[in-house]
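User: Please run a holo structure prediction.
Assistant: Happy to. Please share the sequence and the ligand.
User: Here you go; the ligand is nicotinamide-adenine-dinucleotide.
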Amino acid sequence: MRAAAHVQLYAAGVQRGTGFDLHGRVACITGAAAGIGEASARMLAAAGASVVLGDIDVAGAQRVADAIVREGGDALATSVDVRRRADLDAFVAAAIERHGQLDIMCNIAGVGSYGALRDVTEAEFDRAIGTNVKGTLFGCQAALAAMIPHGRGSIVNVSATAIYIPAAGVGVYAATKAAVAMLTQTLAVEAGAHGIRVNALAPGFTVTNFVGGHLRDADGHRDEAEFTTYLERMRTMSPLGILGEADDQAYQVLYLASDASRFVTGTILRANGGQSIDW
Ligand SMILES: NC(=O)c1ccc[n+]([C@@H]2O[C@H](COP(=O)([O-])OP(=O)(O)OC[C@H]3O[C@@H](n4cnc5c(N)ncnc54)[C@H](O)[C@@H]3O)[C@@H](O)[C@H]2O)c1
């Protein structure tokens, strides 16, 4: 495992006034207690942004915020359930109350959904749609309301490589992430006139708590040998022969959040090790 990217960024020194500099910017990040959301929060804070972290796991979000503050950054942790519009409105309101503005919204919280489509229950469908699709839409709506009066902003959503490679057993998940991609592209068209860019990541296999969810039993346990075999199979899906890490996605978030991507909107950015290669 290489050194955490945020440490590398501190060491390299993000130059003020350059494309990746986020000093003076305010970012809200959902799903910030773990995985890609945590790495993104730390990355944006390392680049100078004040970050507001939202997660259903508020203790986890607080742990990440504390680490950012220890590293010299500015962070606030809040409890957010992205399935609830009111939570996302309050989340953005907390950023405005503390900083007076919102420049960057990262809708990263998401859940997996496993099983053949013929067996999917209404409850499971609602669970996946609620977090992945409604959560993303509500986050975008709350952010747009705050950004439009200022005529600028960057929204980063999270789709998945699963939308490019239909695979048995992940149909509901892939459908929710295809919806995120289309929401992103449509919002890019609608929000562009307000100076707001809307993009998404489509991560490939990235080692976080999320991966191998289908290998866990009802109590959350999994067979470690089976998990190791699964990781090796995922590794071979990349022509590079590597697995993704949360920082690999966080670098994409930094790019899309910053002025380095000022001419980029409506893009679905694929950091997936070449797992899906397309025009
Ligand atoms: N890891 C991968 O290989 C991969 C690949 C493609 C897409 N993604 C997407 O990336 C995003 C982040 O995934 P990750 O790998 O970091 O997973 P993760 O499980 O490590 O982190 C997800 C975070 O979201 C939070 N969360 C879940 N439901 C929530 C809710 N209702 N409200 C608020 N927070 C909630 C969790 O508490 C957790 O902190 C997800 O949208 C996921 O679908 C991940």
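The pocket of nicotinamide-adenine-dinucleotide is lined by residues 30-31, 33-37, 55-57, 60, 80-83, 108-111, 131, 158, 160, 203, 205-206, 208-211 (CB under 6 Å).
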